[in-house]
What does this fold into?
Amino acid sequence: MPSSLQFQLRITASAELAASLRLDPSCAAHPALRAILQTHQATLRCQFDAFADYVSEAEKMGTGNYPLYEWTRQTIENPEKKAKYLQSFTLYVNGDEVYDKDVADALEAGLSKLIDTNGILRVSRYDTKSENNPQPPA
It folds into this structure.
């Protein structure tokens, strides 16, 4: 029986690479990273930008329907957390936020080869098992 556990990868980029990736998420200036992403039908999304979009949408649509609004707003307004999340990128595969283990394994193997030499500081793996991950505030 296949596992229902799925995974998500994130990279932490140097400040210089992060700024470049935010301006050009296609990674045109970073051929090694671009090749890995294309091979796995993956895209990058800056976590800070995702948080800021969530806050903006909540403010337009009414914050009552966005249970993490206050926490997310405080996060993006905190200078230390902002700096952290500006350098953190979630990888989506075929538009999906989480994906099967074999996909995560292959993508992680490729990305791990780019650590240090291409401005990638770290590759992190998360799974969908709630007890393995910090939970958002209630």
